[in-house]
Specification:
By secondary structure, the chain is an alpha/beta fold. It has helices at residues 3-22, 26-41, 44-47, 65-73, 144-148; strands at residues 51-53, 77-84, 88-94, 100-102, 108-110, 115-116, 123-125, 130-132, 137-138, 158-161, 167-168, 183-185, 190-192. The strands form three sheets. Strands 6-3-2-1-7-10-12-13 form an eight-stranded mixed sheet. The mean pLDDT is 92.
Length: 200
């Protein structure tokens, strides 16, 4: 599959899964998010993490603000991503109530705060539109996390929060620079993906 075909294949998956996710009503998304939160917070990887990088959910994503609150309440340091320049992410320490600003695509990011080195992060919650059982993901097309994740420690777990409808049975289209995740947490199950090596 050449670059143009890969881009089209990802775009088709993105369009199909976003349509299904967007079709969930707000009350349904809130109801489905609650067991995802509980399952995520029960992970040993989360219990052992001093610093967890989350993201501020937007649109029809699994809600993350309750997780920010609950992690902070139990003493875990939370980091949120912030776009630096036009292509890079940086992780910024965040406490509930800290000022945030809206990005061009509708999410929020810290307006201030302390930048944390990627090597200090113990777990990264990685956003995406679609996932498969081997840990491949189709994101929103910006490549921000594919550039950020190699900066973290090789053993830092990458966790996706997703509704069941976002986990596809078929293999997702992926290129050499598309990095895999380790765990997918949905409203009904926890999926541990096959081990990845440090380059993926």
């Amino acid at each position: 599959m050449n670059a143009a075909e890969l881009k089209k294949a990802k775009r088709d998956v993105r369009r199909r899964v976003l349509a299904a996710r967007d079709a969930l009503g707000e009350a349904e998304r809130i109801a489905r998010s609650a067991p995802i939160h509980d399952r995520f917070l029960g992970l040993p990887e989360v219990a052992n993490a001093a610093v967890v990088m989350l993201f501020w959910s937007f649109g029809s994503e699994v809600a993350t603000s309750p997780l920010i609150e609950r992690l902070h309440a139990r003493g875990t340091r939370v980091a949120l991503p912030r776009i630096r320049g036009s292509r890079e992410l940086e992780s910024v320490g965040h406490v509930p109530g800290d000022p945030v600003r809206e990005t061009s695509f509708g999410a929020h990011e810290p307006a201030g705060g302390t930048v944390l080195g990627p090597g200090s992060i113990d777990l990264v919650v990685t956003p995406g539109v679609a996932f498969d059982l081997s840990g491949r993901r189709v994101g929103y097309g910006g490549g921000f996390y594919d550039r950020f994740l190699p900066l973290t420690r090789p053993d830092t777990p990458r966790v996706a929060l997703a509704f069941d409808l976002q986990v596809l049975g078929e293999a997702l289209p992926a290129g050499a620079f598309d990095l895999r995740i380790d765990l997918i947490v949905t409203e009904t199950r926890l999926i541990r993906c096959p081990p990845r090596d440090a380059s993926t």
